[in-house]
Design goal:
Among the domains are: 58 residues; 159 residues, Periplasmic binding protein-like II (D-Maltodextrin-Binding Protein, domain 2, 3-Layer(aba) Sandwich). 34% of the residues lie in helices and 18% in strands. It has 13 helices and 12 strands. The strands form 4 sheets. Strands 6, 7, 10, 11 and 12 form a 5-stranded antiparallel β-sheet that branches. Strands 3-5-4 form a 3-stranded mixed β-sheet, covered by helices on one side. It has a two-stranded antiparallel sheet with strand order 1-2. The longest helix has 13 residues. The radius of gyration is 20 Å and the shape is globular.
Length: 328
Amino acid sequence: MEANSGLTTQEVAQVLNISKNTVYELIKRGELSSYRVGRKVRIDEIDIEKYKDKSRTNIKTSSINVEQINVEKINNPIVTSLNTKKDLPGSSYKSDFIICGQDILLDVLTRHLEQHPNGLQALRRYIGSYNGLVELYRGNINIATAHLWDGDTGVYNIPYVRRILPGVPCIIIHLVCRMQGFYVAKGNPKNITTWKDLTRPDVLMINREKGCGVRVLIDEKLCKIGIPWQSINGYESEALSHLAVASTVARGDADVAIGNEKVAQQVENIQFVPMQKERYDLIIKKDDINKPPFKAILEILNSKEFKEELRGIGGYDLTDTGKIVEQP
């Protein structure tokens, strides 16, 4: 099985957060490569990344100071939401303010931040939790998000912030809790219910990329249980998102993947087997906490409007949203 099995136009629309018709228009204009399997259009993940890269490099420098963003440091995946508006009232920050993470709730947060009196227009960078903390340490982004489970302590995020940002005082703010589990075919025909089931010779797995929170959970669990990764068929096959692995299972190209419950609700022919509740947190440097955009973010996270919008999306436990977890 190829790790980058083609996605449908609907799946690509969800990945890029655009309409299905826009996907067809991009294909028609030759901006997004595609191919056909019978009568159905398919797009490879690598071509989605190429389209993102092309979109980034085509942004006019008159609209934004590219040197200020330091594109060479950012590399892939793409930074999105660039536009010509640089400043909003009450903020000294330019449009190189970057929020790192992959969950759709960050799109909601970015929109609320733009509308806040002391907010600004932020960029999004779609990389995994571990790499996001590394980029925060390097000073390439302003906000990281993480759902990194530590097998030794059973604690999310705090141990990783201490290790990956040594000597950098940080503040961890809780976003939401989500349920992680197995994506299997509807009806769970192979009765996959435990981590040990992944080692069965009749089970084929599709994995996530190194550095994302799901991959850390998988590797920590396997290590703690004592399961060698070599015993799992498909362990070395990787995809770049919850949606990509879920759709791989839905198409029958794999028997199992690991991801959050919300995505399982969006993909047909998928059944979700819950395994573990996780914490999804936001991490900022302590020196930034009193600066206008960061204060605005805290206000947004604790606002009724923001929480009601997430509640409408579904799949989130909002019990402690906006609370400061710890200052490691």
